[in-house]
Amino acid sequence: MVKITAILKYFDFSGEYTCFARILPVLNKGKEEVFQTIQKEIEKKEKEEKYERIFRLPEEIGGKKIIWSEKFSTYSYFFMGITVLVCILISINKDKSLEKKLEERKNQMLLDYPEVITKFSLLLGAGMTLRMVWKKIVGDYEKRENRKGEKRYVYEEMKLTYYEMQSGVPEIEAYKRFGKRCGIPRYLKFTSLLTQNIKKGTDGMLGVLEMEAKDAFEDRKDMARKLGEEASTKLLLPMGMMLGVVLMLIVIPAFLSFQI
């Protein structure tokens, strides 16, 4: 019970009026009845389908259609967004990984080019034919590969070319295929020199190869310097990513705590 006192005033006159009242909580009977009805229907459905593999929620209660929906929290949307972002990053990373491997292949073949040209120049100068030189270089590479287990792209392509010639592919055609597979201007020029040598003879071939080897070594120095500069620049990206991860670990929990 609560005592309520009212003071009434009129000019100089005043008076008090006292009464008692009982305060009760607001009843939302209709809403409670709906919840109880739904709960009973769910319990009934659960008993009926307790041996079923799938539990079906009631679609109609008291002649009224019931629509069920899953409640998503802020965390659910956040993790959904993170999942989509990760999938996109993985897709991009695959493309970048392929591009990186192709770039590594190209750089390795360019770095090995002076060595290949020098070997050709020395062995041709010793009196070997082109085919004998090719066989010698491939044989030396296979021995080194068996000993060290190291694979080099250009020598793998040379090995494939040698097997093609052994299987009956014409020598000129095999050299042309080698240049196309390498796909690098330096090697296309090299295969052009080889095919010219077969067609026109070895006159002047050694001098051209020596000049090509000299130019290739100069290019190799420039390329080594460039790769060193790129390596130092690429270190900035991992450092930036680490900083981003640290910031996410700090900011995201703080943001989610405000949402709560």
Q: Please, could you describe this protein's structure?
A:
With 260 residues, the chain is mainly alpha-helical. Among the domains are: 33-69, no CATH class; 101-231. It has helices at 29-48, 74-125, 130-148, 153-166, 171-182, 185-200, 205-234, 236-259, and strands at 2-10, 13-21, 60-61, 64-65. The chain has a two-stranded antiparallel ribbon with strand order 1-2. Strands 3-4 form a two-stranded antiparallel sheet. Strand 3 (60-61) and strand 4 form a beta hairpin. Helix 3 (130-148) crosses helix 4 (153-166). The two termini are 39 Å apart.
Main features:
72% helix, two-stranded antiparallel sheet, mainly alpha, 260 residues, 8 helices, elongated, 4 strands, 8% strand
**How many individual helices?**
8
Backbone CA Rg: 42 Å
Identify the strand order in the major beta sheet: 1-2
Number of strands: 4
> Distance between termini?
39 Å
Summed over residues and divided by their number, the pLDDT gives a mean of 80
Helix percent reads: over 70%
User: How would you sum up the major sheet?
Assistant: 2 strands, antiparallel
Broad shape: elongated
Low-confidence stretches: none
Structural class: mainly alpha
Strand % is 5-15%
What's the helix-strand series?
EEHEEHHHHHHH
